[in-house]
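[Meeting: bench + compute handoff]

Bench side (C.D.) handed over the final construct sequence. Compute side (W.E.) agreed to return the predicted structure before the next meeting so the bench team could plan truncations. Sequence as handed over:
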Amino acid sequence: MGKTVITVPSALPSNVKGHEADLDVADLEIDTRIQRAYIRLDRVEKMKREFNPLALGRIHVSFRKDRSYRVLDGWHRLITVRELTSNAGQIPAFVYEGLTLEQEAKMFLQLNSGERPTAIDRYNVSLFADDEESLAIDAIVHALGWKIAATSGQGQLSCVKTIQQLFRRSVQFEEEPNLVHMALLMINQAWGDTSDSAQAHIVMGLGRVWQEYKDKLKFDRMIVTLRDIEGGPNGLSVAAKQIATLKRRKLAMATAEYVVDQYNVRLGPRSSLPQWSKRA
């Protein structure tokens, strides 16, 4: 197995060493803490049909203290070569020695800064990279009994992009408590941690309502308002979609408008919230 020493990125500590090598594909392993949750088999099939060894490039691998080789970038290429060689071939690689788990996670994010990994992949890996925003979001959702996940389900939030957008809006406008916290708190008290209640437009819509009216809105009345919506969160979604279609608004803003209208039912001018008019 030949070695050519390479220059390690300057952002990494001086104790990290690197070299080029042709590695046996059978020796390479995946640690999903610093990788995608899964690979796209359709992409592997396409790469197999169009395989060109000259265009393969080098994958990026971490050689750990336990003497295992963990792939940082190039999982699809690895599977392609494995299947084409019955797991008996080799693949060109940049090999790094001395990386911590945090540094491996950061390298994955840097090497995959384009659109290839999903939002949930990037979020999960960023936790191991000690990303400040992701750790803060993780703390908020876990404190309220939720977790970020690839699929919706009881206690699971799959709308990671919406959560990130709402969190950043809170930071931008210095909202405290964080709008993510308030949106999930309203959802919890109105409907519980069901998959229907954690739809992206509902999370964003409620967060925006709180931001707009927090000084006038009565929290207990808002919870009763949400509970009284016919059909629960799914009924709210149906009504919001009708508003979005008629008024050509984003679904989250239509959700906010419907919630405000329902809140104002049977309230006089002094207690009513101003009409929702925002489009974005």
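W.E. noted at the follow-up: The chain has eleven helices and eight strands. C.D. will use this when planning the next construct.
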